[in-house]
Design goal:
This is Exportin 6. The chain contains 49 helices and four strands. The protein is globular, with a radius of gyration of 38 Å. A two-stranded antiparallel sheet has the order 1-2. A two-stranded antiparallel sheet has the order 3-4. With 1122 residues, the chain is an all-alpha fold.
């Protein structure tokens, strides 16, 4: 029988036009699907399927029949008659034994899974020989592969079962399996040992070469004559195809077993030694498969005749090792085994990084299987991140020698990804070392000295790897155009990861890092400075034409760019307590770089027609930015001494970047120059800065009304911030009397007056002309001016009161203009968005300076303008400027309700009303995640900051425990807010759910929300019920811990009521379970009051309730006939 009788083959259908044919095929497919589903639901369908399996060779029919059995066992087994179960348990294993060699591997695996599923339900009570049968198969040579497939499937399905089992059954299965682990591991060890010994080639092994003898001697000293060095030097086994397949299956089983069994002495030294024998195969150059590709899993059993992929065995063996090493919890009696494992693995690392006459380390790694190298790198990462702390201090473990091996392994990686992975390992090691030194400061020098040679080598080699001078061929392979998901090119990623490692070494050895970097930087700077002689001034080009010279110049300047970034990372190691000790080094760097930056500006190298990378000049300026904190400390230290050196430095830096603040230079260079000005004015803050001619030129450029010379908006904003900073930020280490506030205030007013000239003219425009050109011009002025003002305010938000006072005085007229214009543009979302962004920044930074009366006027204007219709229209434009307008409006209200004191309390009813009656009804049934998030934060801030608005707690009441409950006010608004929070837990948005749950928990920790009478008596059980339902529906599984903790905190208000009232009521209302199941659920929920036990009970309740529902819903309600 090759097909089910009611399925006419498609190929017999007459030819039809393509569109009609497609429609007909779809209809036929749906009809067949419905017929098959109906057939599968029949009570006795399995009888037919058993017949199909015995009499057909059609793969589709067999797979369908097995799916019917799978569904029967996993969903309807509880309703199957005992006699039928016995028949199925008897027939399917017989079928497997009879057909496992003749059916495709995926049919065999599916049949194995169905038998294991039966064992999952019935073993050992009704299927007592389930596991015994598997062990017998493994012990029968001809059936061992089948037994191993069964064993692996059993481990997968029984050790980590899905939720379609009760917790009690899951625990029982795990206990049963753990009892079998010693037997299973013994069997698997025996197979590996037998096949290795059987196939080891002792006679044909050539005598060891001098190189390999050195290797063994080195390892002998490394591991103090460990027997493993001798053991692992034994000859390699050469397996035939059948033995190879069997060993692959054993290693796959072990890998899965190791993923869940605890570390114990059941994992014997003999087993570990056997695994490492096979791990050696991955190190063997002959092991790389030269024939066609293999299936990804050896359990497929579809090896090509005569093909033995020895590397596959190495990969599987390393997978086993990594499963063991990934476990952080190591019992005391297993620590010795762990040390042996590391000794054996580092023996393999020695083999991988061994050089001989025939192969360099790099060519050797290149010839090895990629997957094997990945697994080995994974091992090294796990070792360093999980176990280094417990092994490092062991006298038996030579950590320095290991680092030497890791060094060779890292810098001979054949791929960029492999190199990145190794750099990550070094980063983890450097973090470990840094933390160790911080925790043992008295031993700092001795710890550092132990590792100094390794760190010096690492720093030098990583620096060499980022320079074209040493690594041109590899670096030119890197893509510097295509952006990845992190918005960086392959070259940028390479440079960033390398510099991260360099920076971590710098933290440990700053002086050595400087002495390594600075001479190399000097060499490249000399090349850059030497370009002047090749500049042809008449045609603005570089007179270097030979291709080889152009290439060398290009590489040298790319290296200079990279080295500048590296030296920039040194800046933090020149400040603070070590400023004086390392002053001369830092000064040498900064003076040299400022000199080169000035040279670049004077010669306008950015303007040449040349192959000089355009990134270079910005890198020079960015370097100066990175040393701004050092300059600030230099300024503080020289205030009472001769400042000429410092003044020269700052003057030169400003002179270098000032000519570049113009529309005539490339934007990247322009922005770097602007950022340097901002850094000098905000971090260094020299008194004399405003008097420099170069700074005066920038003032004139910005305040002159010339649209053609106006900088791009981003650059314009940065320059305005720099100029404002000079006038507003306090000068360091000077008393108030010497700050010249009055003069600076007048200058700032003049600056703002010039910047807002066009904007303030709009004040007279009460009615904007409806003509589009006029409207567009007005909008352009608003959208150019307000971002500048917003940035100026944001820049002084954390500064002194005096700075903020001066800022607000200069801004006062512009703020009033903005308030007048707001009603005019209420329908223009893009303009309103800009205005509200400005007002939000004002409220956050200058609300005290604005005063209560004016602030109240602004709030009143906003509340009156944002009608329900206006809000609804804005919110419905999801993801648009309209939504952003509402978000910013809600943010402003958040600032208002957080203000202490009584000034803004009169607005609370209006704000609450707007929130609950105007915004909430619009967003409740829509996604609108951004607006919802801000609305709920506003609600939370109202409740948190204004708790007494709802609960009038007197001091006497809080002191007298026996006093009456708190007096409740504005109960309706409080209840509405709580209902809004509760409603949000019924919706799918994970972020809103998490945010609101944290708000409730915060209100409880700060104000005892759950204990308040109103919440406790009328809301508490509703919230617990909703949270339990969420767990049951698995809709927010990522938040399981947070939800369970919230349930615990709510229940802990009154555990007696929770256990005696809520739980019985909750279980009685649970549909899909019968009375006996409810009783079991209630009995299993332990009456514990500690968090771990309560959490366990909740998890058990949720799991078992879902399991019972699944079982009950799958019981057949009747027979569907064809």
């Amino acid at each position: 029988m090759e097909t089910l009788h009611f399925l006419p083959p498609l190929r017999q259908q007459p030819a039809l036009p393509s569109s009609t044919c497609h429609q007909n095929i779809t209809n036929q497919h749906n009809k067949r699907k419905e017929l098959l589903n109906n057939f599968a639901q029949q009570t006795g369908a399995w009888h037919h399927c058993m017949f199909f399996l015995s009499h057909t060779r059609n793969e589709y029919v067999m797979m369908f029949s097995l799916t019917v059995f799978e569904n029967l066992v996993n969903k309807m087994w509880i309703g199957v008659a005992s006699q039928d179960k016995m028949e199925i348990r008897s027939c399917l294993p017989k079928l497997l034994l009879a057909q496992h060699k003749s059916v495709p591997y995926f049919i065999r695996n599916k049949l194995c899974k169905v038998i294991v599923d039966i064992g999952r339900q019935d073993w050992p009570m009704f299927y007592h020989d389930f596991f015994t049968n598997t062990l017998q198969l493994i012990q029968t040579p001809t059936l061992a592969p089948l037994g191993l497939v069964m064993l692996k499937t059993t481990s997968e399905e029984l050790a980590c079962p899905r939720e379609d089992l009760s917790v009690a059954r899951k625990d029982e299965l795990r206990k049963l399996l753990l009892e079998q682990v010693p037997t299973v591991l013994g069997l698997l060890t025996g197979i590996l040992e037998t096949y290795w010994d059987k196939h080891s080639v002792i006679a044909s092994t050539p005598p060891p070469s001098p190189t390999s003898r050195e290797s063994v001697e080195l390892l002998g000293s490394l591991f103090q004559g460990s027997q493993y060095s001798k053991l692992l030097c034994q000859p390699m086994a050469v397996l035939d195809s059948e033995s190879h397949q069997l060993c692959c299956l054993v290693l796959e089983c072990l890998a899965h077993l190791f993923s869940w069994i605890p570390l114990s002495t059941s994992i014997t030294p003999t087993l570990l030694a056997s695994i490492f024998h096979f791990a050696r195969l991955g190190c063997d150059l002959r092991s790389k498969a030269k024939t066609g590709p293999l299936n990804s899993s050896s359990s497929n059993g579809q090896l090509n005749p005569g093909t033995v992929d020895r590397a596959r065995l190495g990969v599987l063996a390393m997978t086993c090792v990594n499963e063991l090493v990934s476990k952080n919890c190591v019992p005391m009696d297993f620590e010795e085994y762990l040390l042996r494992m590391f000794q054996q693995t580092f023996f393999l690392l020695q083999r991988l990084t061994r050089e001989n006459n025939a192969h360099t380390v790099k060519s050797r790694l290149q010839d090895l299987d990629e997957s094997y190298l990945e697994k080995f790198t994974d091992f090294l990462r796990l070792f360093v991140s999980v176990h280094l702390r417990r092994i490092e201090s062991s006298p038996q473990f030579p950590i320095v020698e290991l680092l030497a091996l890791l060094f060779k392994y890292t810098f001979n990686q054949p791929t960029h990804e492999g190199y990145f992975a190794c750099l990550d390992i070094w980063s983890v090691f450097l973090d470990f070392l840094t933390n160790k030194i911080k925790s043992r400061l008295p031993d700092r020098e001795s710890v550092l000295n132990r590792y100094k040679d390794a760190l010096v080598l690492l720093l030098r080699e990583v620096l060499n790897r980022i320079q074209f001078r040493y690594n041109q061929a590899q670096l030119e392979e890197l893509d510097d155009e295509t952006l990845d998901d992190d918005q960086q090119t392959e070259w940028q990623r390479y440079l960033r990861q390398s510099l991260e490692v360099v920076a971590k070494v710098m933290e440990l050895l700053p002086s050595h890092a400087f002495s390594t970097l600075f001479p190399v930087l000097q060499e490249n700077l000399d090349v850059y400075l030497g370009l002047r002689q090749f500049v042809v001034t008449t045609s603005r080009r570089l007179n270097i034409t030979a291709e080889n010279d152009c290439r060398r110049l290009h590489c040298s300047l790319r290296d200079l760019s990279s080295l500048l970034q590296a030296v920039g990372r040194l800046a933090e190691h020149f400040i603070g307590e070590v400023f004086a000790a390392r002053f001369s080094d830092a000064l040498a760097v900064v003076e040299r770089l400022v000199e080169v930056t000035c040279y670049g500006s004077q010669t306008s190298l950015y303007d040449l027609e040349t192959a000089v990378p355009s990134v270079l000049k910005p890198d020079l300026i960015d370097f100066c930015v990175s040393y701004s904190h050092w300059l600030a400390q230099f300024y503080s230290e020289t205030l009472s001494h001769n400042q000429s050196q410092f003044i020269n430095l700052i003057t030169s830096a400003v002179d270098a970047c000032s000519p570049l603040i113009t529309t005539k230079v490339p934007e990247k260079l322009l922005l770097s120059s602007c950022h340097l000005m901002v850094s000098i004015t905000s971090t260094v803050r020299p008194v004399f800065l405003v008097t420099l001619p170069a700074v005066q030129n920038i003032f004139n450029l910005i305040t002159t009304e010339n649209h053609r010379s106006r900088l791009p908006q981003e650059a314009h904003i940065l320059v305005c911030r720099a100029l404002s900073n000079m006038l507003l930020l306090p000068w360091p280490n000077l008393p108030e009397t010497e700050q010249q506030w009055q003069t600076r205030s007048n200058s700032h007013t003049s600056l703002l007056s010039a910047l807002t000239r066009e904007y303030r003219i709009l004040r007279a425009t009460a009615d904007i002309s409806p003509r589009q050109p006029v409207l567009d011009n007005v909008k352009a002025v608003i959208q150019q001016t307000l971002p500048v003002l917003r940035d100026l305010v944001d820049g002084i938000s954390s500064e002194s009161t005096k700075s903020r006072q001066i800022c607000y005085q200069s801004l006062q007229e512009s703020v009033q203009v903005s308030l007048n214009l707001f009603p005019v543009f209420i329908q223009q979302s893009d303009v309103t968005d800009e205005m509200l962004a400005f007002f939000l920044t004002l409220f956050q930074a200058l609300r005290v300076q604005m005063g209560v009366a004016f602030t109240a006027q602004i709030i009143h204007t906003f509340l009156s303008m944002f009608t329900r219709e206006q809000l609804a229209a804005s919110i419905l434009e999801e993801g648009s400027a309209g939504c952003r307008v509402v978000q910013k409006f809600l943010k402003i209200l958040q600032v208002v309700v957080q203000e202490p004191g009584q000034a803004f309390k009169p607005f609370l009813p209006s704000i609450l009303s707007l929130c609950m009656e105007q915004v909430y009804p619009v967003v409740a049934e829509r996604s609108s995640p951004d607006v919802k998030s801000e609305m709920f934060e506003l609600l939370y801030q109202i409740l948190h900051q204004n708790w007494r608005y709802f609960f009038k707690t007197s001091v006497l009441t809080s002191v007298q425990r026996g006093a009456a409950e708190d007096t409740m006010e504005n109960e309706a608004q409080f209840t509405a807010a709580m209902q809004a929070f509760g409603q949000s837990f019924l919706q799918p948005d994970l972020n809103i759910f998490k945010q609101n749950l944290s708000y409730l928990e915060s209100l409880n920790s700060k104000h005892k929300l759950y204990s308040r009478k109103l919440f406790r008596t009328s809301m508490l059980f509703h919230f617990i019920n909703v949270l339990l339902q969420v767990l049951l529906h698995k809709s927010h599984d990522l938040l399981q811990e947070e939800i369970t903790l919230a349930i615990y905190n709510m229940a802990s208000v009154d555990f007696d009521a929770f256990y005696s009232v809520f739980m019985p009521e909750f279980l009685n209302n649970c549909h899909g379970v019968d009375t006996n199941q409810r009783a079991v659920l209630a009995r299993n929920f332990k009456l514990e009051q500690d968090l771990p036990s309560f959490t366990q009970s909740v998890q058990r309740l949720v799991n078992d309730l879902r399991y019972y529902r699944l079982c009950n819903s799958s019981l057949p309600t009747g027979t569907i006939k064809l």
